[in-house]
Amino acid sequence: MRGKADNPEPRESPATGEAGASGEAAPHPRVLRGKGLSIDYVRRRVLAGGQEVPLTPLEWALLEHLSRNHGQVISHKTLKAVLWGSEDVGDAALSACIRRLRLKLEDDPRMPRLILSRRGLGYVFLLSH
Predict the structure, then answer these.
(1) 83 lies in a domain?
(2) Cα 121 from Cα 129, distance rounded (Å)
(3) How many domains are there within the chain?
(4) pLDDT at 27 (0 to 100)
(5) Which of 61, 53, 106, 96 minimizes the C-alpha distance to 79?
(6) pTM for the complete prediction?
């Protein structure tokens, strides 16, 4: 994925990732934290409840894209292009990847609070609510 090593000054950020007082967009943080989750983009490491969560490369790519855009709905089309390089991949493949990621990260995958579905639109990652 692009952008992981592009930031010469890695930063740690709360889930908000808000810009400073200058109003400029904040650079991607080195670590994103909230809801008992810690995502370290440099080390490609995820902790949930203090325990490391092993992720496949596909799960990592999905989590990275969703979390770097937290609070924004990401379309199915965009996620399929990011993960597989094609929008022609079936929706079932994306749903399966989301389901596996929820099983690893959510307290109750049937009632997700991190990775939410927006019917007909896509998925949104919410770390700060």
Answers:
(1) yes
(2) 20
(3) 1
(4) 64
(5) 61
(6) 0.77
Strands of the sheet containing 51-52, edge to edge, are 12-14, 31-34, 37-40, 45-48, 51-52
Question: What is the DSSP-derived secondary structure letter of residue 123?
Answer: E
| CATH number of the domain encompassing residue 45 | 1.10.10.10
| Contact of 35 with 15, CB cutoff 8 Å | yes
Retrieve residue 88's tokens.
Answer: 């022609």
Task: Report strand pairing: 74-75 vs 122-125.
Answer: antiparallel
Domain span holding position 63? 12-125
Q: Is residue 2 part of a domain?
A: no
Higher pLDDT, 55 or 18: 55
Single-letter code of the amino acid located at 104: K
What whole-number distance in Å separates Cα of residue 94 and Cα of residue 17? 26
**SS3 at position 4:** coil
Token pair 């379309």 is found at 75
Q: Is residue 57 in some structural domain?
A: yes
Q: How far apart are CA 90 and CA 87, in angstroms?
A: 8
